[in-house]
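Record type: monomer structure entry
Structure origin: computed from sequence
Chain ID: A
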Amino acid sequence: MNYYQETKDKVLKSVDSSREGLSQAEAGKRLEEHGYNEISRKEKRSIFSLFIESFKDPMVIVLLIVAIVQVAIGEWIESLIIFVVLILNAILSVVQTKKAEDSLESLEKMSAPTADVYRDGQQKEIASKNLAVGDIVILESGDNIPADGRLIEAESLQVEEGALTGESLPSDKSVGPLDGETPLGDRVNMVYSSTMVTAGRGVMVVTSTGEKTEMGKVAELVQNASAKQTPLQRKLAQFSKKLGIAILLLSVLIFGIQAARIFLGGMEDVTVPLLNAFMFAVAVAVAAIPEALQSIVTIVLSVGTNKMAKQHAIIRQLPAVETLGSTSVICTDKTGTLTQNKMTVVDDYIPNGESNLFSGDSHSWSESEKILMQIAALTNDSTINEKGESNGDPTEVALIAYSNKQNLPYDSVRKDYPRLAELPFDSSRKRMSTVHEIDGEKRLLTKGGPDVLFKLCNRVKINGEIVDLTEERLEELKQKNEAFSDQAMRVLAFAYKPIDSTDVSIEDENDLIFIGLLAMIDPPREAVYHAVEDAANAGVKTVMITGDHKTTARAIGRDLNIFKEGDLAYTGQELDALSEEELMDQLEDISVYARVTPENKIRIVTAWQNYNQITAMTGDGVNDAPALKQADIGIAMGSGTDVAKDASAMILTDDNFVSIVRAISVGRTIYSNIKKSIAYLFSGNLGAVLAIIFALLVNWVNPFTALQLLFINLVNDSMPAIALGLEPAEPNVMEEKPRDPDESIFSGNTFKIVAFRGVLIAIAVIISQYIGLQTSTEMGIAMAFTTLILSRTLQVFPARSNVETSISAGFFSNKFVILAFAACMTLYGITLVPAVRGIFSIPAAFGLTEWAIAAGLALATTVVMELKKVVLPYKSE
């Protein structure tokens, strides 16, 4: 039943209640049948189950097998290192998952703890969770509304519903039935759970409780909205699965080949050779798996959060940093994000008179203009303190701020003309009147909606003379009002009349003298114009989704160049009327959505995701939370509700669209740098694997021990990989189109680069091992290890760019690379200390000559990598 379409008596009858409320017995019966007025939650997963789930990754499973084998054969150091890395990664995963569950807890905190109701004909206070459908609830200014209800009384009642509807101004409430289907934000005879009474008083009959309220529906949407993996997470997960399986198969194959050789060789005792063969296979697994990859990606993303914070973007979930870089659609709220969230007077209209109101000089104003500004300041209860902080209705604040700006301080006007009487604003009258003594006569001053004041005026002041308001003149006023409205402006009309007494009533608000109109708007932020253009140049589409009226939204969208020629603007109701096929056909052309519901927002976000676009969603209210969670990246406003913040991945401290575009630039740079780190890691790992496989094929000894490989992967490679994650932004970062979310992490020549560098490193290692084997097996291992660690460390310089050499890119432009190289050389030097050599299988005979040969081979690989960029540069894909 649409309660807003029915009379209040019919609504009372439909919920089987009366103005005296329910009896205690009947309320108890209904609670037992339908449940308490509270939002239930799905059972949370335990921390232990989340911890165990993090070990399901294929690469993690392979590492676990390797660690267990190391324990079995007594290699405790290697196994301990692996276990520590895996546990740290698991803890990080659990922490991120638990953060995502906070939004429902904040939603529950918004509910009112108590409510004043009529039970058994008497007024009493009860816990809000004990409210039942049919209860009669009394509403006073400042109350949080405890359930959804139909108003049966409303006296100057205003309700702040922005958290649910997105409206920036309080809603004026009334009790009459409404005709036809009406959007939630326009249901003026209904009130909703977790909204707040800002003025007046009222009485409502409860029509929905708990999960059946509009807020309950939002909670269900939040619970059911799927938290999205970022493109990088998805690709790393897919790659991990493939790599884990490939490594396992390769290790089994290598062990099989070695075992076959042993058994075919006719050896009597095969135990030791089989164990060596098994360790050979284990070494391949350790060499191929980038153990520190997840940690390095996490660290690079964490550093990115600091960069984001400087752009007024606080990252709640680390992967959001990378997601921003691939964002192709921004679904943004209007109020406060694209606009200043500050109503501002921008135009005026004085009948048949030239306006000087915007001159900034009140001395040049005509008599009509002076009267108009007096009315604006005096029929007004808002204030602005010395710090510039305002208190009161945003529209009234705009009027006195405008008066101050025009060198007519509102407080001086109020001091000169004190209020003698008043008829306060009433939502049914849509106007306010006050009485003052001005220029020796008592005047009734009135401000209100133009449609209302036009009917109450029979005269108009034109060029200092008071004349009759003829039909022709009235039509002129109406046309001007419509012209302002077409530009998405909020218009107020001003009138007055002389009176004899301060004892006034509503009847005195007739036969008024019309003075003029003031038009105001929540203006766009100046920087947003350029930011929208920058986003478009970067291939990012901006879509406005707002709770405001369609005319207002479309006008702002057109002004900001979001709504272009040929684009479409739909209301939530019009969107509901579209089938999925129709929506997908028109999706790219719809740039403005107005009067939307939480369900509409989720549908819009999901449609873009189904269109294979990485979608960002901004919001500040409870009604935004489901879509914020559903989006690839939810962006909450710093001034918004805790529910919106908890459902989001990022919070804008300045509520500014410009900060989103800046953050996208940082995100793109970070993703590019992560790919550089990945290419660096896998090039070195590939070189090690190829060297091991070559040794197997020619029946050499394994060139590396498991500890050597773990030292390189976890210690030596980590710092250069992190340093690469701190590379400065490329100059054209915001001129490229968003990357395809389905593209591989090895796209864009990355695979070719990894293969080329990996083969070079392998060749150098193989040559080095061969030279060392001429002396001894131990020397071959020592030289292979030295060449591998030096070539992988030196590789950090060519890895800084795929197209530029480290010299042309600015050798010292990334000081972290220099520091990482120096630190790695220091760590490598520790392995040569006599007391440590034995642990890393470096014999005493390994001297300066052997080191120089290994270093020369490593340096040669670096030179070839850099020359390749000059002689045979990679072509862009």
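Annotation 1: Residues 538 and 734 are 5 Å apart (CA to CA).
Annotation 2: The chain has a mean pLDDT of 86.
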